[in-house]
Amino acid sequence: MRQSQSLRFAVLGVVAFHPTGVHGYVLKRQCDRILGHFWQLNFPEVYRVLNWLAAEGWIEAVGTEPVASRKRYCITAEGRENLSSFLLEPALDVPRPFRQELAVKLLFAVEERTPELLRVINRQRDTYVDQLHLLATQRRRLQRLPVDPFLANLLIDGVEVVVRAEIAWLENVCQKLTERFGASTA
Question: In what side-by-side order are the strands of the sheet with 22-23?
Fold first, then answer.
């Protein structure tokens, strides 16, 4: 429930960036640019959230685009009030339990398979390194937006810290497995 609430407010926030209104297609593109690496939205999700926001009276249709009869939505006073309240509420997110697939592989690995396990861990590390490259790309995209990227960059900073911590942990795991069992990925 909390994730859908956050998603609603994320979409509402993007609508708020458009004082003259925005239609679903442009909203989806803006969500991709602004929320990009944090949330991947599809069109049905965008329209489902728009419908919910409209039903609650937080946004309203302000006209129709001549092309393809697209409704434009604008945030209402009630929507601004709710968005403002949400922004000042303490976040209730708690760290998720460590339920990665790699954790299961480590728990049930046998010593004889250590070289193969080290290769699996290194592939996982490479995946995280790829994520760092995607974050850098996201930062560059933010620079081209007509909005101040400062706050979005703070979010990217947070994701980067987590990804770098995962990489450091994976490197530590490889080192300790090698020390304990004398295996290497070579």
Answer: 22-23, 71-75, 59-64
* Strand blocks (E) in the chain: 22-23, 59-64, 71-75
Which residues are registered as beta bridge partners of 64? 71
Tracing tokens 């850098």 back to the chain, one arrives at: 136
Q: Which residue, chain included where needed, has tokens 């926001």?
A: 53
**What are 79-116's pLDDT values in tens digits?**
999 999 998 888 776 666 566 788 888 888 888 889 99
Asked whether the beta carbons of 28 and 46 are under 8 A apart, the reply is: yes
Architecture of the domain whose range is 2-88: Orthogonal Bundle (1.10)
- Please say whether the dihedral angle defined by the alpha carbons of residues 79, 81, 82 and 86, taken in this order, is positive or negative: positive
Cα-based distances in Å from 76 to 34, 164, 186? 21, 41, 61
